[in-house]
């Protein structure tokens, strides 16, 4: 695939982080090295990367999309305190999926978000208690 310098920079940024940044975070981090970069360009390129399946858009419920260059099958943990999104790697047994499906549905895939408090926030809460 032939990418523009800006799209290549966005993709490399995502491939080199375990975080799941927002478009605004990507923009802020790349702007110093790409002075002509605009937030609209980041959004447009993220949209194209998502359309091609190169990047995954995560809608975690906080009204801000996060992005992930790891397109392998995996789940995500979302901290309800700080908003951090982390990868989780496990498979849900097919029988768990089938238990909740009637004869009217066939599951092709699933996305799972687990919500809770991350270790860092949990430790901060303990220290402040």
TrEMBL record:
<dbReference type="GO" id="GO:0045892">
    <property type="term" value="P:negative regulation of DNA-templated transcription"/>
</dbReference>
<feature type="binding site">
    <location>
        <position position="118"/>
    </location>
    <ligand>
        <name>Zn(2+)</name>
    </ligand>
</feature>
<dbReference type="GO" id="GO:0008270">
    <property type="term" value="F:zinc ion binding"/>
</dbReference>
<feature type="binding site">
    <location>
        <position position="79"/>
    </location>
    <ligand>
        <name>Zn(2+)</name>
    </ligand>
</feature>
<keyword id="KW-0804">Transcription</keyword>
<keyword id="KW-0408">Iron</keyword>
<feature type="binding site">
    <location>
        <position position="95"/>
    </location>
    <ligand>
        <name>Fe cation</name>
    </ligand>
</feature>
<dbReference type="GO" id="GO:0000976">
    <property type="term" value="F:transcription cis-regulatory region binding"/>
</dbReference>
<keyword id="KW-0479">Metal-binding</keyword>
<protein>
    <submittedName>
        <fullName>Transcriptional repressor</fullName>
    </submittedName>
</protein>
<keyword id="KW-0862">Zinc</keyword>
<dbReference type="InterPro" id="IPR002481">
    <property type="entry name" value="FUR"/>
</dbReference>
<dbReference type="Pfam" id="PF01475">
    <property type="entry name" value="FUR"/>
</dbReference>
<feature type="binding site">
    <location>
        <position position="82"/>
    </location>
    <ligand>
        <name>Zn(2+)</name>
    </ligand>
</feature>
<dbReference type="GO" id="GO:0003700">
    <property type="term" value="F:DNA-binding transcription factor activity"/>
</dbReference>
<keyword id="KW-0238">DNA-binding</keyword>
<dbReference type="InterPro" id="IPR036390">
    <property type="entry name" value="WH_DNA-bd_sf"/>
</dbReference>
<keyword id="KW-0805">Transcription regulation</keyword>
<dbReference type="GO" id="GO:1900376">
    <property type="term" value="P:regulation of secondary metabolite biosynthetic process"/>
</dbReference>
<comment type="similarity">
    <text>Belongs to the Fur family.</text>
</comment>
<dbReference type="InterPro" id="IPR043135">
    <property type="entry name" value="Fur_C"/>
</dbReference>
<dbReference type="InterPro" id="IPR036388">
    <property type="entry name" value="WH-like_DNA-bd_sf"/>
</dbReference>
<keyword id="KW-0678">Repressor</keyword>
<feature type="binding site">
    <location>
        <position position="121"/>
    </location>
    <ligand>
        <name>Zn(2+)</name>
    </ligand>
</feature>
């Amino acid at each position: 695939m032939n990418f523009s310098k800006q799209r290549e920079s966005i993709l490399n940024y995502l491939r080199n982080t375990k975080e799941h940044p927002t478009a605004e975070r990507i923009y802020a981090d790349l702007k110093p090295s790409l002075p002509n970069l605009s937030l609209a360009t980041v959004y447009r390129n993220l949209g194209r990367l998502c359309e091609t399946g190169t990047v995954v858009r995560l809608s975690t419920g906080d009204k801000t999309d996060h992005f992930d260059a790891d397109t392998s099958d995996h789940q995500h943990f979302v901290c309800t305190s700080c908003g951090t999104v982390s990868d989780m790697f496990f498979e849900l047994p097919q029988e768990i999926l089938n238990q909740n499906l009637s004869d009217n549905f066939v599951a092709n895939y699933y996305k799972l978000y687990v919500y809770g408090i991350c270790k860092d926030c949990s430790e901060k809460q303990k220290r402040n208690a």
